[in-house]
Every structure is written in structure tokens, then in C-alpha cells.
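Lab notebook, page 48
Experiment: co-folding of the full assembly
Goal: obtain a model of how the components sit together before planning crosslinking
Operator: M.T.
Materials (sequences as entered):
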Amino acid sequence: MTITKRFWISLIFSLPMLANMILMPFGWMLPGGDWTQLALTTVIMLVATGPFVQSAWASFKKHHANMDTLVAIGTATAYLYSIYAMATQQPVFFESAAFVTTFVLLGQVFEERMRNNASNAVEKLVNLQAKDAEVLRGDEFVKIPLAEVELNDVVRVKPGQKVPVDGVIVKGSSTLDESMVTGESMPVEKSVDDAVIGSTMNSTGTFLFKANKVGDQTMLSQIVDLVKKAQNSHAPIQKLTDKVSDVFVPVVLILAILTFLTWYVFLDASIARALIFAVSVVVIACPCALGLATPTALMVGTGRGAKMGILIKNGEVLEAVNDVKTVVFDKTGTITVGKPQVTDIVGDQQQVLQIAASLEESSEHPLATAILARAKAAAITALPVDDFKAIEGKGVSATIDGQTGFVGNTKLLTTAKLSDDLEQQAVKLQNEAKTVVVVGVADEIIGLIAIQDMPKSTSKAAIAALKSRGLKTVMLTGDNQRVAQAVADQVGIDDVIADVLPGDKAEQVQALQATGKVAFVGDGINDAPALTTADVGIAMGSGTDIAIDAGGIVLVKNDLRDVDRALALSKKTFNRIKLNLFWAFIYNILGIPVAAGIFFAIGLTLSPELAGLAMAFSSLSVVTSSVLLNKAKITSKVQAA
Amino acid sequence: MTKILVLIVGLAIIGFILWWFFGKHAVASADATVTDHQQSVDIEVSGGYSPENIVLKQGVPAVLNFTRKDASSCLDHVVFSDFGINQALPQNQAEPIQIDTSKPGEYEWACGMDMFHGKLIIK
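Observation: model returned without errors.
Model output:
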């Protein structure tokens, strides 16, 4: 029988007794008196309370005790004592057993609903998926179920259809609504070579794309996986409740016995009165509220994050965020757009660009892309090179026409030196937030190339928001001090640590940890060690899979303002956990003494019925408080950009 | 006189509770039955989990069949926080749960309210 059914039966059979209790002062009595009460309560005990007793007995045999143990002992004591009292012509309290059962079940009915409510975020995500896809087979498009889409299939998406899997557009263009996956509310324009995400909505155009991720490799599947893990993870704060819940029920039982003994033996109360106090103690204690406080809030908080495109990996991260004092940013791709462009060339334009382009052709550095793009635009062809060498954090060198050519920063220079004139020009460019690379052949510097990576339009607002939270912001970069400082000034970052080799980022984070917990925000593969070292690693969207693995928080959108939102959400969730725990503890700490009759002298006592009601609503209120987290305002200090 | 008797009985019950719940007691433990590249364990959920400790072989796909006999809402979900599993257990119905046995170690599982616990050892 379901809990709901048990509740209704128990309610219906309790109502006559409720009427009896309310109308007694007005002279109305339940026909049949105690016998009717006995009959009604017996039905409730068998149908509605029975399962509590079964569960309590089953756990008792395993040396365990739970919520059901308390309910079973409380109601059975009231019921059995009433039968004894009836036989010996004393006042009965059948209604206590009946009402307690009804209230406890009422609480459980609501609680079950709320718990489903708390955990449905994942379900909603899964339901976002398209059911089928139009795939090119032979030379026509056929509709096949989503599960049958294979890697490299060409898929057609018409206006109003959902993109079935992840891939890259090969033909056509359109506007897509990606809000369901990334949280980005603005529609995004996409054309050939742009990546599309499965489960997003196509609005205007028709396009063809090649599937590059299917099945459980798609972004949505990975998000679902991550959220599931996060929702069921443990927060370190739970260790406390774990310890308490282990001993909770037996301790309450002992307290109840002590209550009875104190009243009956030492205070000369009647057996009935002493029993009522003892039963109230058993019934009011609620280990469930303690047990539910953390998981439900964690579930709602992480689920809500997923909707905003903020994936919080687990409860540990959530807790760590609270103590973060410093936020460290990677520069390229995090604070800046990550697409550097050549702005100035000093020296013989043609020659400098040709040498640089030839050398950089095999390089994967973002700056190389900028140089090659400029060379392509100027219609300069690269020369063949031999002995290509990439020197990490410095630059590249190779042999051109029998001479050693090099491109890189000043750290690369060993024998060659910048002339005073070039030195001055370099300083000037660097002060304009431009990265300067030196181009040389055969130990002689032939020119400079200035490359600029613009800060994202949202960076300034994002940093301001973090600073208004009282956090210290630091930028970590391989660029030299002048460029880094210029960028930092533009976006308002407090401190700059420049000239950091990629491998040393983690060490720098470690050094900063000396003054408090550190969050690191980054994206590239380079950042994985720093993301792991930091107390909270925040991996930015469009990042690689590795960075997503290393980060404790993953921002699906490539928007720096989400860092502040993620911090706000984590704090809110963690505060809710603390509030829930506080409430659950204080409830038990205050409720039990009141039920035990400690405040009897000042007229404050609780009947078992009220105790049952209080218990039912204490766990319900904890779950409700968690579910309300969905509605809570996430006060981000980000100004509208 | 009755009161002294009641006091003695009451204290005796307290003693019993202490011994029964906090004393050292053996827990039901079980190894998985391994058949052709598959191992499985049947777990009965009734006032806790029996068996409570389970040993699985590393690398062999494993299925745990949970059957909930207990009506308690305390036990209506089983949570493996390390695997991201939170499975509803319908009453009186075997619910198979796949376990990834690729990494050896000790993993805990618990009921939805974190009141009942079980331990999974993969080696």
C-alpha cells in the first residue's frame, strides 16, 4: 500500500476522534465511547501503522534504528497503554496513536512530493533530447531514432527542429537557441564550420552538420552525468550529521525512558502522565530532518546551476567556495577573447612578416594563428623551414635558407640584443596592452610584431562584481609585465603575475594559497594543473574536455560574469544547507526537552499529537526550504553590461 | 516498592539499548556470484540492507539487485554517491543497478536520507 493510501485511511478513521475531542466541551460524545475509539484506532494501527512496526522490527534485528522505530514505539505505547487503561477503568488516549500516525503520514506524503520535485532537474535535462534525426543515407535523408545516429553522419536540421547530436555545420546557416544547454538567453548565429550542440533549438534556417559526438559523448549527456554525480555527492559538512544520525534514535529512546522514570518515580506523576511525556519525546524527535538537510539542498542547488549553465561538481566544491579569498584568472581566452590580432609591425613589413609566418607555420600557439592570419591577408607565402623547435614559454626557432631564424619574446634572446630604438618602440606597444614578439635571423633582430588580444566586453563588469564581494583578483599570464599590467588596468584587476611559464601556473596558485583559499579560472589544457591545484577550479566553457575534468565548477557559457554567478549560487546553496542543519538541530534540541515536560512548571507541555505534527512538519520544512532554493534570488553583483 | 521495580526495569532497558545498538555485532557480508563475465548480488532491503557488505571482483561487470520489502519511505531510494546513482526502489520488485567495477576501492551506499548504509568493496 502506498503512503498516500495509508494516509487517507488513517485520516478518515481519525476524524471521528477529532470531532470527539473538539466537541467534548460542548457536550457531544462519540457514540460507543472508548469501544468506538478502540475499533477506529485498531484499524489505523493495523493498516497505517503496521508498516512502521514491520520496518522498525526489521531494522531492530539488524541492530539499527530509524525514524520508523520512533513512530512505531510511540504509537504502540499509546495504543497498548490505552487498552490496559480501558481494562482498568482509567482515562484512555487512543487518539494520540491515531493522530500521530496520521500526521507522520501527512508529512511523508508532502515530503515525497517535495523530494521528487528536488530531484527532477536531471529528468528535465534528459527530456531536452530530440527523439529522432534526419540523416543522410546514400543520397537521401531518412528519419532515424536518435540512438542510431553514428559518428560522421551528415544530419539535416530544419527550422523549428532540435539539433539531435553535437557536430559542425557543413552547409547552410541559422540562428540557434542554446539556452537549454548553455544558459545563454540570446540566440546565436551559426554558419559553416561553427559547432552546434545537441538538444539546442534551431529557429530560422536549414543546415547540414556532421556529427562529431553521439550517444553518451554529447555535451548534454556529459552535463547530465555531471549533474547526477553532483546531486548525489556528499558535502563534508554531512560528516557531522552522519555521526549524529548513527546514535540519534537509541539516544532518544533512552531519553524517553529517563523521562518516564523521572516523572513516575521521582516526581510522583501518574503512570498515564509519565507515559504521555515519554511518548511525546519519542514522537517529536526527528532524525529525518537532519538526514534530509544537506542532500536536498545540494540537489536543488546543483540542479538550478545546470539550468544557468553553471555545473558544480560536488558538495566539496560548494563548501570550499565559501572560504575563497582570492580569484586567479588566466589571461588568454579567459579575460581576453583569446583571438589575438596583429596590430603593428616594426621593421620591413614584408620581410618581418614572411620570416615570422614561415617559422610559425608549425606552431600551435595562439599568437602564431594571429601572425599567419595577417600573412594570409597580405598574400605572403611562407618559406620552407628545417629543424623547427618550439621553446616552451619563449618562442620558436628553425633554419631558413641555411640561417637560424627565430620568433618569440625577449626571453628567447641569447646573443642578439634589442637596439635602443626598438626597445623604446616595444615598451610603447606593450604599454598599449600589446604583446610584442621579436623576429630575427642569424642573431640579428629584423623587426617586431605587436599582437593584441582584446579583453572580452564582459570582463570588466565581471571583475568589478567579484571585487565588490571583497575578493582579491589576480591575473596570471605568460605575457610580460607591461602588457599584462595594461590589460589588468583595462579590466580592473588588482594584481598581476606576469612572465609565468605554463608549467609554473600551478606553483603560483600554490604560493597564493598561503594567504587563503584560491579559486582559479581558466580554460586551456595548459591550465589543467592550476585548476586542480586551486581550492576551487573554475573551467570556462568552450574549454577542452581535460579542463572540464580538472575543474570543480564548469561554466558552459564562455562568459566571465558566470564566475560571480557561480560563487553566488554556491554560497546560497551552502548557506541553505547550514540553515537547514541549524533548523533541524535546534528543532530537536528544543523540541525534546519541551516534550519531556521540562517546562511543565511554566505551563508549557506538548501532547503526543502535537509532537507528531511538529515532527512531520520539521522534515517537511527542511525539504521545502531546499526546494525554495529554486526560487531564491541569486544576487549577482554583475552590472548589466 | 513498585516504583523501585519500575526504576530497575527502566534502567535495564536502557542497558539493553546501549548493548544492542552500540555493542559490536557481526554484519551480514557476501561475495558476488560470478557467472560468465558477469557478477551479481541480490540485496534485500528491509530495515536496512542484507547483506550490508559486498565484495565484487574488479573488472567484471556487476549488477546489484535491490528488492525493497520494507514500506518505509526512508528506504525508497538507494544512493551510490561515488557513482552518481540515485535509484528509486519500487516495493517488492527487484531493481537492478549496474556498478562500474573498473576502479578498486571501498564505496559506501546509503538510503535517500543517509540513515542506512552499506559498503561495497571492489578488489
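Interpretation: The domain at 27-122 of chain B is CATH 2.60.40.420 (Immunoglobulin-like).
Next step: discuss with group before ordering constructs.
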